[in-house]
Predict the structure.
Amino acid sequence: MKLEFTFKNVNKVKNKHPICRIELNGTTLWQGDVKNKVSLDAVSEHTNTLRIFFENKHGRDTVLDENNNITQDLNFELERLCIDGLDLKYLIWESKYVAGDTTIPSCLFFGPKGFWEIQFEHPILRWILKRNHYKNNNDPEWEIDYNYYEEACRKLEKIR
Amino acid sequence: MSQVRKDKITKIAWALMTASVQKKLDVPGEYLWNIPVSDDFYEVRSKTWSVFSSGNCIKDKEAIEFVNSIKLNTCLQDPHIVKKYEEYFPVWLKKCSRFRLNGLDDFKYSSLSQGSQEYFINFYLTHRNKRFRILQGEYWWHMEVWKNMGIDWEYIEHDDIRSNDVVIVSFPFARLGDKHPQLDNIIDKCEKIGVPVMLDFIYLPNVNYDNLEIDLTPSCIKSLSFSLSKAYPVANGRVALRMTREKINDPMQISNDENVANRLAAGLGLAVMKNFKVDYMVEKYQKEQEHWCKVLGLQPTKVVHFALGEPYTENGRHTNKRFFSEYNDQQNRYNLGPLFANKRLLQELGYYE
């Protein structure tokens, strides 16, 4: 399985750069400075839990002025996630951010120390179609057509 | 008719459209409505719905290669090319033993038409103060134009043919791929009350009759229309012909008389006719038609690239069941051309049987 993350609004504090660690089903896949694009290969299971940990955030990384307004902060945002070449689009919001005892649903902003989490199934297309229908209730044929598509792709892969 | 194999029909549609995206078709598609522009599931799916629609010709490799080899530019300098095309068309047609057009010689006035649509438009213009009559299942383009242009029309099934009417019927009939069962009655009625009829023979080159007699002698039949677009891969070259009993000085004829008609279309048409027999596709693909009809449980028609079956729009589809137009009522007519053209691929995929 291929994972492609796109991050944006990556904010440093002084010379400190945010660091994240990406984990799939409890196994660390990558750790490093947050950059615009991160592409990874991973072994998936049928059901998967993907987490991105904000590794190096501490209280002193949020700088306040005399009125307690934030003047500088170490943070970043997840903009896009593609799995096996498929953009999750709005399904990326079916995730949460966990910071200590607090769980924030549908949050792509990495502010406090914590981790972002999404659960999905493999194959990803099947999961996307299923979730789209679940959310919009407008595609009852999704599974039948997915099977046609999957068969066509599988057969075509064998030729030329 | 044996059981229609919807599942297999749908699988083939998915295979062809997925192969199109992956550039694995034996012969690539030609029209945007069945060429997926990306491998996005929803995009491919939407195009699977139109694999069997349309009346377009078989994308025969040899014919495409021949058309690609024609050097047309020189036709622009040939002031006689349109005339040559117009004169050769009936000669070419008469060489085919599958049908005989009795009375064709009475249609002395031939005019190159830039596709069938040009002669339709001119027919509409000539009879603009009349009511147009058409059978359900006919080419939807007519009704769509009439609706949008405010032209009076009615299905033949909905009202008697009356003296202020004009009639257009395709032969073979567009939806059936065979002569319409009501055609003789319609001609009789039109003959009795003097209603002009245009017979549209657009699918005629692809018919597999053995020896069909077509009677053109009733005087109500005022014009005949022919085209190469449904038999040869020249549809976008707009190669058609109108034949009439009387000279009609409509825009199309005036352009012909002025010698400003489309010489590229004439040159293309002439080259195709000189190189291919009328029933080239029939000879080449009739066995394929029989094969696919058997495999898919469809009923072969008299047009070699068509078959009849339950509407393919009933396969996994809830909206947009009529392509392009609310008047498109040809969903039970399967265009088998994509199957013929991609035989090798479908064999490799295990769908050919």
Observations:
- DSSP finds twelve helices and twelve strands in chain B.
- Chain B touches chain A at residues 10-11, 14-15, 17-19, 22, 24, 41, 44-45, 48, 316-318, 345, 348-350 (CB under 8 Å).
